[in-house]
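task queued by scheduler; priority normal; single chain, no ligands, no partner chains; default sampling; output format set to structure tokens
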Amino acid sequence: MSAVVPVRGAERIRRALLGSYPLVYVQSWEEGRVERAVAMLAQKFYERPVPFAVWTCVEGWTGLPEAPTETRDPVAALEAVLRANGPGFFLMKDLPALFDGRADVVRKLRDVYRQAKGKGKFVVLVSPRLILPEDLKKEVFLVDYDLPDEAEVRNAISVLGRRYLGEAGLSPADADRVVTVLRGLTLDELEHVFSKVFARTPRFDEATFDELLAEKEQSSRKEGVLEYVPPRFTLDDVGGLENLKDWLRKRQHLFTREAVEAGLPVPKGLLMMGMSGCGKSLSVKTIPALWNLPLFRLDMNLVFGTANPEATFHRALKTVEGLAPSILWIDEIEMAITGGREAGGGDPALGRIFSTFLTWMQEKEALVFVAATANRIHLLPAEFIRKGRFDQVFFLDLPNETERKAIFTVHLKKAKADLSKFDVVFLAKATKGFNGAEIEAVVQASAIDAFNEKRPLDEDAVSRVITNTVPLSRTMDEQIKAIKSWAHNRALSASRESAS
């Protein structure tokens, strides 16, 4: 991957050096990428190349000829920097992890700051974690070394494409799709992904694209509260909800390079509210296949099960930003921000997490689309659903007759039934008040009965199950009326017709 030049990261470090900071702390997982950036600066920062050396706690200094034989101890290593002749760049990879309990190391770094200042010597610390003693905060310049930007990812994909697919590599259109999917990975991860996917099958098709899409699962699993949801559903699996479907289709290409270059706004998020079983979760699961973006579900139960929920939540948001462009799904978001309690009480941590989420939604620059669903919508604070947080707020009502026909058609096809033997108009009328999940359950129960009786699935079997089913709308009539009344002027209907 030496062909990839980390221009943006090197520029951030260069600007720190222009400020004459002899101590620079680079927070990054990519030691190799940072090393290449600093090596490049050693060649170009001054009018002539200057020495560049690398230190680890295992090998000591490499590339510092005048250093003593034994420099694995950090104090000895820093002393070698001070004794080195002339300007130079000194990259230290393991030093931050050694700060704890080593006051002598902190003291020596402060000495380096004073003695190396103005002499062209720069010590660059690199670590994936920010470990900075209080005594060093005024002497060290921090650089947040971003993951590879689009240009770096595109360059890497071009190199890797030619390596694994031949001289032609990926076509421009395929390269655009792969860049969109693999943004958020490190350059090392990109190389591993290509090796894993293309070494076995040296061609690019939809199957290999799905494999590339799934590779982001590795990054999400490391945080422990994010679940990668594979693209198993399409809009054809959703019966009805035509307004919602149209909204999603119109934004299908807004995450592409052409749309961004044309100045079109990138969607921020979508909130779907309504009764349980009306298709909110299924609708979210259709987005990754439609938009060619990975979907990650944030499990708030796992967040609150950690020792520090606020820190875990913050890390989860940072992880999703690193995986951008992507879709973040937060199911039953009212439980996440209120704990299921009415306003005015509860855990103070919930309020702080809610505040953090609102600020992040308003100010996030990463291409992360938030798909949120809510059942107990009266628990949602007014500031949460106002314009600016989400691009649109949809209300998913009980399916109307037209939608019930569509839902029956979807599930009968899945059950491999002969549709010519079913009067879906009759079935739709017979299931007034049923939600989509209940209709699915009716078809599944009928298919099981037919299988056990060793006969084809027919309309009589479905009708018998309908007769013996009491829909939720009958037992929760008052609650449903209250939900409809609350959502009337607060959300756009996901359906084209009123429920009937």
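post-processing summary
- The first helix runs from residue 7 to 18.
- The longest strand covers residues 121-127.
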